[in-house]
Amino acid sequence: MLDLSYTAPKVKTIAGAKHDWELVIGMEVHAQVSSNAKLFSGASTQFGAEPNSNVSFVDAAMPGMLPVINEYCVEQAVRTGLGLKAQINLVSAFDRKNYFYPDLPQGYQISQLYHPIVGEGEVLVEMGEGVARLVRIERIHMEQDAGKSIHDMDPNMSFVDLNRTGVALMEIVSRPDIRGPEEAAAYVTKLRQILRYLGTCDGNMQNGNLRADVNVSICRPGQYEKYQETQDFSHLGTRCEIKNMNSMRFIQQAIEVEAKRQIAILESGGEVMQETRLYDPDKGETRSMRSKEEAHDYRYFPDPDLLPLEIEQGWVDDIAANLPELPDEKKARFIKEFGLSDYDASVLTADLDSAAYFEAVAEGRDGKLAANWVINELFGRLKKEDHDITESPVSPAQLGGIIGLISKGDISGKIAKELFEIVYTEGGDPVEIVETRGMKQVTDTGAIETAVDEIIAANPAQVEKAKVNPKLAGWFVGQVMKATGGKANPAAVNQIVQAKLGL
Amino acid sequence: MTDLNTLGLAEARDALRAGETTAVELTESCLKAIDAADALNAFVHKTPEIAMERAAAADVRLRAGDAPAMCGLPIGIKDLFCTRGVPSQAGSRILQGFLPEYESTVSQNLADAGAVMLGKLNMDEFAMGSSNETSTYGNAISPWRRGNDDAALTPGGSSGGSAAAVAADLCLAATGTDTGGSIRQPAAFTGTVGIKPTYGRCSRWGIVAFASSLDQAGPMTKSVRDAAIMLEAMCGHDPKDSTSADLPVPDFEAMLSGDIKGKTIGIPREYRMDGMPGEIETLWSQGTDMLRDAGAKIVDISLPHTKYALPAYYVIAPAEASSNLARYDGVRYGHRAKLAQGDGITEMYEKTRAEGFGHEVQRRIMVGTYVLSAGFYDAYYNRARKVRTLIKRDFENVFAEGVDAILTPATPSAAFGLGEMTDADPVQMYLNDVFTVTVNLAGLPGISVPTGLDSQGLPLGLQLIGRPWEEGDLLNTAYALESAAGFVAKPGKWW
């Protein structure tokens, strides 16, 4: 197992008019399972299809239709649980959550209230070098997504699109271990990263494939520690649940405005009511959606159409054995194997494509140099054009070629940047380009000596000054580089200049 | 041959194979009988074109010597089964106009076995009822009458149309479904045979759900042999139903030896209810004697939790129903209420469901919603589930002690008159299920066999309950009982 030592981040306090307050946040993240078919029907899950084209008789809840579990979705949930170092429950069961809505054809959502497939796990959320929050996962259960109601297409009618109906979701429920807006966003980011590494959710928040319900409460400093000791929620404030957040930015904003709202209520002697709220990013406020009293009575009961879900330890072990390297492990390995800084390793392991690209570049080369080039040159250049690493016109082999030329001393850093630009815009083999365009660095000391001699001879005044002020040697190096069109090896030039000037 | 419609499945099958008649003749005979029996209101959607087409196809296969088990045998299908392109309303207004684009697994299995569908049969709305009086199509009427009294009697429910149709020889056999006794009670009321197989034996796919953990399809026939033939054709594993058992289907008919020597038959003392009519008591002891005479060993047994079965059933079944029926909301198919200006989605739900569901269905939805609601769940639903476990254990215990089958009355009385229970407490009606619900709660196979007539000439039936998955053995015991009872009475034709 991994042993990353870290310290917990400082808890953010918010100053109210009267007191300081702390935030306590728990999250329910709904992640769409990456699967070609829905959780209980064979219908496709493809995004962006014609409305109501990915709908089976089961999804439309036609009379007499029955759900049959999609085994692959179960495998994905197990894989996710393993990725979050969670307990896998070999027996779980499905329950019906009953409520009426036009985009819920069955009149109930099949979920797992009483016996979820995944139990307790954890996510390490890094908040800087050596600083991290360990967020405990309470459970992960599988459930069906609902369809989509469209109210703004017709003045008198609502429309329903059932394409999403029955798509498999994993609801990942955290403990209230998150202590600030930044931590909340970092938690979702980390979760998303892990899910994408595992291939169990594409993490596309724009399409709603990853969305979060955020439970926010506030407490006075010291109260949270009492909760931690006792696990007694009465030490904490009353929570409000902000529903359906699908952007990191909005999650942070919503938590901040909600905390301020609750502080204002408590400091004016009021009471925070437990309720479900919605965040309105345009107005920058949260609004009540329904109070506890108005909350649905979901009348959960075991779904009699489905037998308890029993899986075998051997099957779980097989999935575990084939789990990919996860972000924390990859990062630790990059630090160890390539000598990267914590920051560089984090950047390069943020997603699998970047990590794979870097590894291909660094293979058999200077890891640190490779990291610098991938992060600074390549990522910078891609960002300018709003490109993704997968759209990079420079292949790992090409970038590796450039780095190889630098390491060999064939080209200087400056030339390398020119070469990179050529490869980026025109393509081609870097070694060939350097040869054909005469970009190779001059390492012939004889030639460099001649150039140095010429510069010294032409600038006697500067020579005198340099003898008093040795820093001026750099001026001579610059002149030599200029004279050689940048192709002279700067280290060699420096050495010769120093010697000739007698410094 | 005349009156081909009066034949049973086995007789007709043999006649067809011997070339004594044709499927077309057989089917025409039934269609004629159906058309002459509108007074019974048994068939609510007739499908003569489908019937004649399938009969003609069956004759081709018969002539080619390639006839499957039920080739050319005309049957009726309970309206609860979804049948492709044919109205399938579950006896409810809320499914008015609904034409499924799919065929239930059971009706497909029957079609694959060559059976000829004559049409859809009346039933209590969503199979909720014991008298067929909750149907949107109106009452199905029993062909039986009390002596010379011409008062209309119930054929029982919920498979009332199926029972009436089989008893009146409108078809050779029919499908039924049984959630709390809906096959066995109407069979007992009409002098027919009805078996509810082990839960999981027949696929529920494509059958409109009432209470998913209790619902099972089964045949309603004129003899035990016919029940064996038809059950074999109906059942089998179906990957589309997660609760369907992946077990081989035995040759049930081949197991009908009539030899029950050495079998142990249990007589449960808890089924001897207070106020049980003497005729039922007598019937039961006669049945006991018949089995003893046939060589079975009779033992008194105890099923101690029996008295809790009916209340537990009337918690669990409505709970599941309240959820299963949530899909009938007027959004996608079936009835949708006309809305007033300004009505929103809530009004659409309320009006649609108020208009679409009858009172009994509404009552059960409300009961089910109540027992699942926060604060009541443990007191009702969870407790009922625990009772269910205990009832199941009662049966497991007696089977473990060597009991092969259990003999009980099928119903607490003979058929009652339509309308007689209208003003009664609904619980009076629920008492009809007192001998049958335990079997559903325990998931066991149960069969109703006609064994006698009451003083007014109405049929009475006894129920045999078997071990799980041992329908073959159960059918054989029923066959022995049937042979001993020699029940041959038929209703006098008045329609």
TrEMBL record, chain A:
Q: Which reaction does it catalyse?
A: L-glutamyl-tRNA(Gln) + L-glutamine + ATP + H2O = L-glutaminyl-tRNA(Gln) + L-glutamate + ADP + phosphate + H(+); L-aspartyl-tRNA(Asn) + L-glutamine + ATP + H2O = L-asparaginyl-tRNA(Asn) + L-glutamate + ADP + phosphate + 2 H(+)
Major enzyme class: ligase
Which keywords appear in this protein's UniProt record, sorted alphabetically? Answer: ATP-binding, Ligase, Nucleotide-binding, Protein biosynthesis
Gene3D superfamilies for this protein: 1.10.10.410, GatB domain, N-terminal subdomain
Q: A Gene Ontology biological process annotation?
A: glutaminyl-tRNAGln biosynthesis via transamidation
Entry's SMART domains? Answer: GatB_Yqey
EC assignment? 6.3.5.-
- Pfam families named in the record: GatB_N (PF02934), GatB_Yqey (PF02637)
Record flagged with keyword Transport? no
Report domain Asn/Gln amidotransferase positions: 356-501
Please give one Gene Ontology molecular function term for this protein: ATP binding
Entry keyword ATP-binding: yes
Assembly with partners or alone: Heterotrimer of A, B and C subunits.
* Family named by the database record: Belongs to the GatB/GatE family. GatB subfamily.
Among HAMAP family, the record links this protein to: GatB (MF_00121)
Its biological purpose is as follows:
Allows the formation of correctly charged Asn-tRNA(Asn) or Gln-tRNA(Gln) through the transamidation of misacylated Asp-tRNA(Asn) or Glu-tRNA(Gln) in organisms which lack either or both of asparaginyl-tRNA or glutaminyl-tRNA synthetases. The reaction takes place in the presence of glutamine and ATP through an activated phospho-Asp-tRNA(Asn) or phospho-Glu-tRNA(Gln).
Protein name (database record): Aspartyl/glutamyl-tRNA(Asn/Gln) amidotransferase subunit B
What species was this sequence derived from? Sedimentitalea arenosa
Q: Upper lineage ranks?
A: Bacteria, Pseudomonadati, Pseudomonadota, Alphaproteobacteria, Rhodobacterales
UniProtKB/TrEMBL annotation, chain B:
SUPFAM superfamilies per the UniProt record, alphabetical:
Amidase signature (AS) enzymes
Enzyme class at the top of the EC tree? ligase
Q: Where are the transmembrane segments?
A: none
Recite the UniProt keywords alphabetically: ATP-binding, Ligase, Nucleotide-binding, Protein biosynthesis
Reaction catalysed by this chain? L-glutamyl-tRNA(Gln) + L-glutamine + ATP + H2O = L-glutaminyl-tRNA(Gln) + L-glutamate + ADP + phosphate + H(+)
Enumerate the PROSITE patterns for this protein: AMIDASES
Molecular function (GO) terms for this protein are:
ATP binding; glutaminyl-tRNA synthase (glutamine-hydrolyzing) activity
Q: Quote the InterPro entries the UniProt record gives.
A: Amidase, Amidase_CS, Amidase_dom, AS_sf, GatA
Gene3D superfamilies tied to this protein:
Amidase signature (AS) domain (3.90.1300.10)
Its EC number(s)? 6.3.5.7
Q: Which residues form the active site?
A: K78, S158, S182
Q: Where is the Amidase domain?
A: 25-475
GO CC terms on record?
Answer: glutamyl-tRNA(Gln) amidotransferase complex
Q: Name one GO biological process term.
A: translation
Q: Which domain of life is it from?
A: Bacteria
Tell me how this protein assembles: Heterotrimer of A, B and C subunits.
The similarity annotation says:
Belongs to the amidase family. GatA subfamily.
> What role does it play?
Allows the formation of correctly charged Gln-tRNA(Gln) through the transamidation of misacylated Glu-tRNA(Gln) in organisms which lack glutaminyl-tRNA synthetase. The reaction takes place in the presence of glutamine and ATP through an activated gamma-phospho-Glu-tRNA(Gln).
Q: What is this protein called?
A: Glutamyl-tRNA(Gln) amidotransferase subunit A
Origin organism is Sedimentitalea arenosa
Q: Which gene holds the coding sequence for this protein?
A: gatA
